[in-house]
Design goal:
- The structure is a single chain.
- This protein is α/β, with parallel strands linked by helices and 477 residues long.
- Helix content is 35%, strand content 23%.
- The chain has 14 helices and 25 strands.
- Strand 13 and strand 14 (280-281) form a beta hairpin.
Length: 477
């Protein structure tokens, strides 16, 4: 067998080139450039390794015989159907069946995994450009599979070489869209809300497929932007975290006099909110709003928030009788703490929102339904409603390219440790709390030579002052 060009194959095993997957196995998923880092052969082997992994994991439970099938779904990228088919070939070669749901958002795969009690694989590169693709994996019940919970084991198995399996598995197709939409609507009651005009920017991603099904029959007038499924992303990248990709939505909200704007990323597991003025709403404010709604159904429950989320979140959770629990950044940490604490809800400042009622998985669509319900159950505009949950000024995430992450981090730590009444903790990077209420978190990237800075304070002037002080130390200005 010839070695595929550019796939980083490092050795041969019984005449077959074996890949080096270190560049594409990330903290929470597999992601790389199609044809250079990711191809059907590699994905087929990953499918086989995943089938072996979930079989071993489930059989370790008392009385379990392992799963009989794996669920697959894919986004609208040109490369996704072929990669999903290759993965299915790898799974069926190990004797497991495959249930293919076809086009799907990532949270639809989580739904299918939870609803059917089976492991799943979603083919998507989320918000990344068209030349990328990847795989998000989960065990039965939408339990996460990350580097420390299976991805490394799968990587090692593929790199050692996959041997032929017994075969015998079959692929069947199943449409889960209606079940998914029905389940989400069962979790949030929108039947009595006032009519709302909502602009939705799907970014040519999977929101264009799922949103119409979910909102059908609700008192919403939806104005669609870029609902056509197109993995080339002809209008803008499907990455609402970049303000440049919100410009069209902001303009449309103002133009149509809409009550709200919603922007989904490429695989529709994240949702960003724009108020009636066309102004972005902080994901921390959304976290606080949804937390209060969930706590109304279970007073005293725990709510998870990560350490770059606004301080307003734990304050509001506590004020509404909840128990705020702080965790590191990253969905595996959120889900782990939710499982440990029985938390009803969790939110990240990156606009990932996790629900116990959704198998502790994240769903941008479910968060959007909560926002729509909260807005429609009262008469104030979105800006007034969200003002209740927005208490502080923030910098947003600021990235700095550095040659010496550890050295720059240590310089910042020493600088602030020398001050009186300053609190430092290192749960995830370095968090510094100042006596005036200002705080910042500085974290190294796991994959790039970057330091990521988030600052929050009482007002914009205080944010800018602390931001500039930290950046001077980080960048050596």
């Amino acid at each position: 067998m010839e070695t595929s060009v550019g796939l980083g194959r490092t050795r041969r095993d019984e005449g077959r080139a074996v890949p080096d997957l270190s560049a594409i196995v990330k903290a929470y998923d597999i992601r790389g450039i199609v044809g250079e880092q990711l191809d059907s052969e590699v994905v087929r082997d990953i499918g086989a390794a995943f089938a072996d992994f979930v079989g071993r994991s489930d059989e370790s439970a008392e009385g379990s015989t392992g799963p009989h099938a794996v669920i697959t779904g894919h986004d609208m990228r040109d490369s996704s159907p072929a990669l999903a088919a290759a993965f299915a070939h790898g799974v069926t070669n190990r004797g497991l069946d495959v249930i293919s749901v076809g086009l799907a958002s990532t949270d639809m795969i989580y739904f299918a995994s939870g609803w059917l009690g089976l492991p799943g694989a979603m083919f998507t590169a989320s918000h990344n450009p068209a030349r990328y693709n990847g795989i998000k994996l989960c065990q039965a019940g939408a339990a996460p599979v990350g580097q420390d919970s299976g991805l490394n084991e799968i990587r090692v198995a593929v790199e050692r070489g996959i041997q032929p399996g017994p075969g015998g598995g079959v692929v069947t197709e199943r449409d889960m869209l209606a079940d998914y939409a029905r389940y989400l609507r069962s979790l949030v009651n929108l039947s009595g809300i006032r009519p709302l005009r909502v602009v939705v920017d799907a970014g040519n991603g999977m929101g264009g497929y799922t949103v119409p099904a979910v909102v059908e029959g609700l008192p919403l007038h939806v104005i669609p932007l870029y609902f056509e499924l197109d993995g080339g992303f002809p209008h803008h990248e499907a990455n609402p975290l970049d303000p440049a990709n919100l410009v069209d939505l902001q303009a449309a909200v103002r133009e149509h006099g809409a009550d709200l704007g919603l922007a989904f990323d490429g695989d529709a597991d994240r949702c960003f909110v724009i108020d009636e003025r066309g102004e972005p709403v902080s994901p921390s404010a959304i976290t606080a709003l949804v937390a209060t709604r969930e706590l109304a159904t279970e007073p005293g429950a725990a709510v998870i928030y990560n350490l770059i989320t606004s301080q307003a979140v734990p304050e509001i959770v506590a004020e509404h009788g909840g128990r705020p629990v702080r965790t590191r950044v990253g969905h595996s940490f959120i889900k782990q703490r939710m499982a440990e604490t029985g938390a009803i809800f969790g939110g990240e400042h990156s606009a990932h929102y996790y629900f116990r009622s959704f198998w502790r998985a994240d769903s941008g669509m479910l968060a959007a339904l909560h926002v729509l319900a909260a807005l429609g159950q009262q008469q104030r505009p979105a800006s007034a409603l969200m003002a209740e949950f927005s208490r502080y000024a923030a910098s947003g995430e600021i990235n700095s390219t550095v040659d010496d992450q550890r050295g720059r981090m240590e310089a910042v730590r020493k600088w602030f440790a020398a001050r009186e009444a300053v609190e430092l903790d290192e749960l995830d990077g370095l968090t510094v709390r100042c006596p005036n209420g200002s705080w910042f978190n500085l974290r190294p990237s796991n994959t790039e030579p970057l330091l990521r800075l988030n600052v929050e304070a009482r007002d914009t002037a205080a944010v800018e002052a602390l931001r500039d002080e930290v950046l001077a130390l980080v960048r050596g200005n």
